Amino acid sequence: MPTYDYRCDANDRVIEVSHRMNENLTNWGELCARAGIDLGDTPADAPVHRLATGGNVVTSSSLGSGCPPTPACSTGSCCSGGLCGLN
């Protein structure tokens, strides 16, 4: 499931939770229940807003080796041994 950041207007906290894309949390009580945290001093009906965040983006620096993905073989077919682009 994707993760989303929500901000509470009453306490200015930002909480990250996972839920289905078609769901939308509207208040602090729903957000706390989903995140598994206590309400604290904030009223359960305090409004929350989903923030527009970029999500997970795959870049060459996040691939582990730091190398960009190996390009497809220029012949358009698979090389012997399945090692296209490797020397």
From TrEMBL:
Recorded superkingdom: Bacteria
Record's protein name: Zinc ribbon domain-containing protein
Organism: Thermochromatium tepidum ATCC 43061
